[in-house]
Amino acid sequence: MDETGVGDELDRRVAEAHAHYAAIRPLSRHEHDRACAVLPGGNTRSVLHFEPFPFRVARADGGRLVDLDGHSYIDFCGNYTAGLLGHSPERVRDAVIEALGRGWSLGAVHTLEADLAQLLCQRFASIEQVRFTNSGTEANLMAIGTALAFTGRPGVAVFDRAYHGGVLSFGPDIDGPHNPLNVPHHFRPARFDDIDGLPELFAIGDLGCVLIEPVQGAGGCRPASVEFLRELRDRCQRHGVVLIFDEVMTSRLAPGGAQQRFDIRPDMTTLGKYLAGGMTFGAFGGRRDIMAQFDPSQGGPLTQAGTFNNNVVSMSAAVATLRHEIDADTLAVVNTRGDGLQRRLEQVFSRSGLPMWVTGLGSMLTVHAEDDRLLELYFHAMVADGLYPARRGFMALSRLITDDDVDLLIDATERWCAAW
Ligand SMILES: Cc1ncc(COP(=O)(O)O)c(C=O)c1O
Questions:
Q1: Binding pocket residue ranges, ligand 1, CB within 6 Å
Q2: The overall pTM is greater than 0.85
Q3: Residues 307-366: pLDDT tens digits?
Q4: What is the domain count for the chain?
Q5: How far is ligand 1, taken at its centre, from the CA of residue 101, in Å?
Q6: Which CATH number belongs to the domain containing residue 144 in this structure?
Q7: Which residue among 36, 289, 321, 399 sits deepest, i.e. has the most Cβ atoms within 10 Å of its Cβ?
Q8: Is 143 within a domain?
């Protein structure tokens, strides 16, 4: 692009977009400066940063966010899938308040964790028993450790662009340097959705588990093919390797998760995000013989502590979410709407001739661009029109996003494309 001078034009337009954005958000800028003095980068969740500074939310309601400067946004980011219910769902709030009335920080077992465990075991075919954590990251760390202890082998197969948490994230180049914050497991990185690469992966011989997102989320909303997942399932079976589905994001794709949608049963599953109605949450579970390692009555050698694993807020919120908020019809509607949005965006970009495209499945999708400045401009154009996707082009529909909201995003995208 630079050869034709288009690169300079992109730089100019980005600078212009940033200046326009900043000029009408003095309060957010002020808060950003205040935060930067005490929070490196001005936040405590790196993914939330974008240039020149992120708007600060004053309040959220239904499917919308309102920033300190009074700008309102239709929330297409959906808290990176954790916001499936939309903001402040009433029955979740009521359940939490009711549970808090009976005390919290108990340091003792109560009834909610068994209620929640029952609901999850009924819902996800691969989960015969389950344990809770405080995040999806922790759920994956626990699942890996559990699987390796079960098999007695150290190798952890992972895939390019996989994101299983801030200490379990992998770049596009499987031979490239790893994220320096990753935990020191014996990772065996392989190519996502590459059936031909599987014989080599399994030939390594030391594999204890395979950890995979059936549809990569942060990696760009890339669905694996059913054939690949089936082959992975078969090979894990044959080699005694524990297959872990990271369904922290994908459990929203069907009532029983992506494993139901793809009709493939992993040995273990990890969960998180929206399942506690937006409260902090993680879970790992799976085959009874694997999870029995935590059962002292069966001589299980493993323990899992965690002060907040059964915290009253998350447990009551998750029980209310699963009992009252997320039925098959709701998920079907949200996922169908996401498929429609993806199709329409693809058409708009393809008609425009811009080097931009869309990937995803159901209510999770990502807009991609050949040049990241294009994505930056697209993002700022949406924000200027009161629409909030994630900066990286990611969108996760909540059940409160309507067809009219989708029309608004399509209109805004068409207008932006037409301006080139
Ligand atoms: C697929 C996947 N696994 C795990 C995680 C980590 O979850 P958490 O942010 O709750 O630690 C994420 C978070 O985005 C995720 O997308």
A1: 80, 135-137, 140, 163-165, 213, 217-218, 246, 248-249, 272, 282
A2: yes
A3: 999 999 999 999 999 999 999 999 999 999 999 999 999 999 999 999 999 999 999 999
A4: 1
A5: 31
A6: 3.40.640.10
A7: 321
A8: yes
